[in-house]
Design brief:
Layout lengths: L3 H16 L2 H19 L8 H14 L2 H4 L2 H18 L4 H20 L1 H11 L1 H12 L3 H8 L1 H18 L4 H12 L3 H31 L6
Length: 223
């Protein structure tokens, strides 16, 4: 690949060694070493030239003493480099996995949570979910963090459903009869609904874990 970005990263590393010390310097050295290793083997396609030139330009701006001393700017630039690597490799599968598991988790959360928590809890999460989805689509780190906030609630709701299913196994028919009488549904409909909800809780558990795993593993693709 073009050596401009590699040279910029090396220059940034030299500046870091002059300005920072101790663990902070070692941490930045490690991150830049990983970037150098990754970018050495990447061939930037013509369609990604704009992104590549932006990386080089922002890196040169960062080399100014006033900028590189600003840890927010330095950390942002390194995250930007990590995220751009996925673009250069045309690797958007991790983002699709995160979005799909997020949407599935949210949908099942809205369906299953009212049974035990009412509609208020689901309503509270409407805005965070919307903002999280928008942020994740734009690959913003804050959006990812906001989206992952649904995971604890998804796990909680799924575990409560599964715990209830386990506790009612011994007197399942009696439990279903009580529910059908309470809600005014037929026994058969209530039974099918309960079984479907239990299966959805298993899926919710799986999607919540998948979302958390994918968010942690592929967090570097977010800026």
């Amino acid at each position: 690949m073009d050596k401009d970005l590699l040279l910029v990263l090396e220059d940034i590393n030299k500046k870091i060694n002059k300005i920072y010390s101790g663990r902070k310097r070692d941490s930045y050295n490690k991150k830049i070493a990983e970037l150098l290793k990754s970018y050495e083997s990447i061939e930037v396609q013509e369609k990604h030239e704009t992104t590549y030139k932006s990386l080089v330009s922002k890196g040169k701006e960062l080399l100014r003493d006033a900028n590189i001393k600003d840890e927010k700017k330095l950390s942002y630039y390194l995250r930007y480099c990590n995220a751009a690597e996925y673009d250069f490799k045309d690797n958007i599968k991790p983002l699709n996995l995160i979005l799909k598991s997020f949407l599935l988790t949210c949908a099942l959360f809205f369906v299953l949570s009212p049974q035990y928590f009412g509609f208020v809890l689901a309503f509270i999460f409407v805005i965070p979910i919307f903002l999280g989805l928008r942020g994740m689509r734009k690959r913003v780190m804050n959006g990812l963090m906001m989206g992952v906030a649904i995971v604890p609630m998804g796990l909680l709701v799924s575990i409560i459903w599964l715990r209830n299913a386990f506790l009612t196994m011994g007197n399942f028919n009696q439990y279903i009869a009580g529910l059908s009488q309470q809600y005014g549904f037929t026994f058969e409909f209530t039974k099918n609904l309960q079984m479907a909800s239990t299966m959805m809780s298993v899926v919710l558990l799986g999607s919540s874990i998948t979302l958390l795993y994918a968010a942690i593993k592929y967090r570097k693709m977010f800026v």
